[in-house]
Automatic annotation (TrEMBL):
Transmembrane segments: none annotated. It holds the Pfam family KH_BICC1. PROSITE patterns: KH_TYPE_1. This is K Homology domain-containing protein.
């Protein structure tokens, strides 16, 4: 097996298909710049180009370990996010359109997109505030608009955010356990937002797709919950190993127990070496790299990598939401 192939790997990540066009950019310029800067190849599903085609959220990133992680982070940073709330009926006596003075002021002050969206079935008009997922002004602009429309009642108003998750992963996300995973219940408890999957959504707000997940709460709560929700999403790392490095069943069980990672071995079509597929959640990306290093017998990577024998001695029983990782994630989000 060529050494060059050994150095390369592929990420498969969940990016809402509704955001693919934004990530790609006009004439592909945005994604091309990321590929050029990170020396990776990024593939978006071809079927999404067809209006009636089957939609897929899965995006593939191929390159070296360092480069695919850089590309993943860059894609996450440019993801758009929209917040939606109902405009008070008493405000509809005004002509609320794209040129509404309040909307123009908020666009200019906060650098976000603000649009009115009527819902024909009920006659309601919603306000859509759109920005980037890591843009602090998104929550600030939404809070300003709610205050302008509702005054002293503004604290009672909830906003919603819609994201898309492949249907086969809904059960996966809903059954993660707080003892070892980043789970939905813990995010709801921490942020006080509500996360609803299609089976629990009462379709009164025009959300009809089977892939849609709705996050609701205050603007700050929803923005925070959405960032944490994305860290829950499944991520797959695929790489090649020579026959002499093929992990045993005991190795696979050990990696699952110590790193919280699922490992699958597949025979390559050319039958030279094996294809290893390791899967976890995005917050656990570093451990995917650690699993790869362990399987390949590498002594170092970006983090300090311990051999399997050393991991046996790791007696840290802290759960994800108790210390270390969770406190870092949450403090980072709270400061934004």
């Amino acid at each position: 097996m060529h050494t060059k192939n050994m150095e390369r790997a592929t990420f498969k990540i969940e990016i809402p298909f509704t955001d693919h066009a934004h990530c790609i950019g006009r004439q592909g310029n945005q994604i091309q710049s990321i590929m050029l800067a990170t020396d990776t190849h990024i593939h978006f599903p071809d079927g999404n180009r067809e209006p009636n085609g089957t939609k897929s959220n899965q995006v593939s990133i191929t390159g070296t370990i360092t480069s695919i992680e850089q590309a993943r982070k860059r894609i996450r940073d440019i993801l758009p996010m929209s917040l939606k709330f109902l405009i008070s009926p008493r405000e509809l006596i005004h002509i609320i359109n794209d040129d509404y003075p309040l909307f123009k002021y908020v666009r200019r002050r906060y650098g976000v997109i603000v649009l009115p969206r009527p819902y024909a079935k009920t006659g309601d008009v919603y306000c859509i505030v759109r920005g980037l997922i890591n843009q602090p002004e998104l929550a600030e602009a939404t809070e300003y608009l709610i205050q302008a429309f509702y005054g002293f009642e503004s604290s009672l108003i909830k906003v919603t955010c819609q994201t898309e998750v492949s249907e086969q992963y809904h059960g996966y996300l809903q059954t993660r356990q707080q003892s070892k995973d980043m789970c939905i219940a813990a995010i709801e408890q921490y942020t006080h937002a509500t996360i609803q999957f299609p089976t629990t959504i009462i379709n009164t707000n025009g959300y009809g797709r089977r892939t849609s997940v709705i996050i609701s709460g205050s603007p700050t709560q929803v923005c925070q919950a959405r960032k944490l929700f994305d860290l829950c999403l499944p991520i797959i790392l695929t790489f090649e190993v020579p026959i002499d490095k093929e992990p045993t069943r005991a190795d696979i069980a050990h990696i699952k127990d110590k790193l919280n990672i699922t490992t699958i071995l597949r025979t390559r079509k050319d039958k030279i070496g094996k294809l290893v597929i390791v899967q976890s959640q995005e917050y656990n990306t570093d451990q995917l790299f650690r699993a790869r290093s362990i399987i390949l017998g590498l002594s170092e990577i970006n983090n300090n990598i311990l051999p399997i024998s050393s991991i046996n001695n790791n007696n840290n029983k802290n759960t994800l939401f108790d210390l270390n990782l969770s406190s870092t994630i949450f403090s980072d989000l709270s400061s934004k």
